[in-house]
């Protein structure tokens, strides 16, 4: 059975971040209870390679109905590691995002931006024996979100991982380097530690850029520990 060190909450956003207004209503006001991990938290859930279909890792193709999706193609790769930097194989990585115009394929999203009939904005992939993952997608657009006057979310991709067990559950967001909206975004700034915030920003990778096809970005993910990837608030 795996054992896990206590989670370093200093790497993550607080449950209530006043600048992110909805957390005031939904965030718990009492300190979380520390529950000793047992067999269940350290051994599952586990996902077989059959959990991923042939085109799940390629969001530029898995939603095609009558043509190519619109926008800038990118390829995102990285390594999933544990607290001690050891690679984590066979981890399911789920992703979802807005399209190039900044709109999600969801009935609640009524942003006045076009839907792309060839882009559904969701997919999944698994890490290999060395903890590496990769997926192709379209760079998401910014969108207004009503948190405050003239509020716009930076370009971002959501990621969800369980790691080797429930104790390493992580839901986070990946941002892009050089985005001017980052310093105005209460969700990004909700991660108060500056070094931890930097771990939410992908690195441009010319080595992984595919000539004539897609720009490359590297986003490594650490589950728990002092160098953990911050959780989404």
TrEMBL record:
InterPro entries (alphabetical): Intradiol_dOase_C, Intradiol_dOase_core, Intradiol_RC_Dioxygenase, PCDO_beta_N, Protocat_dOase_b
Protein family: Belongs to the intradiol ring-cleavage dioxygenase family.
Intradiol ring-cleavage dioxygenases domain: residues covered: 44-225
Name of the protein in question: Protocatechuate 3,4-dioxygenase subunit beta
Domain of life of the native organism: Bacteria
Organism per entry: Thalassospira permensis NBRC 106175
Keywords: Dioxygenase, Oxidoreductase
Entry keyword Transmembrane helix: no
One matching Pfam family: PCDO_beta_N
Domain named Protocatechuate 3,4-dioxygenase beta subunit N-terminal: residues: 6-36
Annotated NCBIfam families: protocat_beta
């Amino acid at each position: 059975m795996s054992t896990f060190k206590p989670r370093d909450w200093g790497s993550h956003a607080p449950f209530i971040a006043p600048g992110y207004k909805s957390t005031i209503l939904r965030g718990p006001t009492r300190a979380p209870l520390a529950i000793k991990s047992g067999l269940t938290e350290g051994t599952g859930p586990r996902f077989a390679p059959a959990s991923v279909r042939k085109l799940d890792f390629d969001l530029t193709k898995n939603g095609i109905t009558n043509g190519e999706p619109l926008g800038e193609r990118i390829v995102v790769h990285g390594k999933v590691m544990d607290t001690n930097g050891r690679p984590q194989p066979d981890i399911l990585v789920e992703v979802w995002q807005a399209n190039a115009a900044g709109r999600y394929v969801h009935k609640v999203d009524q942003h006045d931006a076009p839907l792309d009939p060839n882009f559904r904005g969701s997919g999944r992939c698994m890490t290999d024996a060395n903890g590496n993952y990769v997926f192709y997608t379209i760079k998401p657009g910014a969108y207004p979100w009503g948190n405050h006057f003239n509020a716009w979310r930076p370009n971002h991709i959501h990621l969800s991982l369980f790691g080797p067990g429930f104790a390493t559950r992580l839901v986070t967001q990946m941002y892009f380097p050089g985005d001017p909206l980052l310093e105005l975004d209460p969700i990004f700034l909700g991660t108060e530690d500056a070094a931890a915030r930097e771990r939410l920003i992908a690195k441009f990778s010319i080595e992984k850029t595919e000539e004539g096809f897609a720009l490359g970005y590297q986003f490594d993910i650490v589950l728990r520990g002092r160098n953990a990837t911050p959780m989404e608030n």
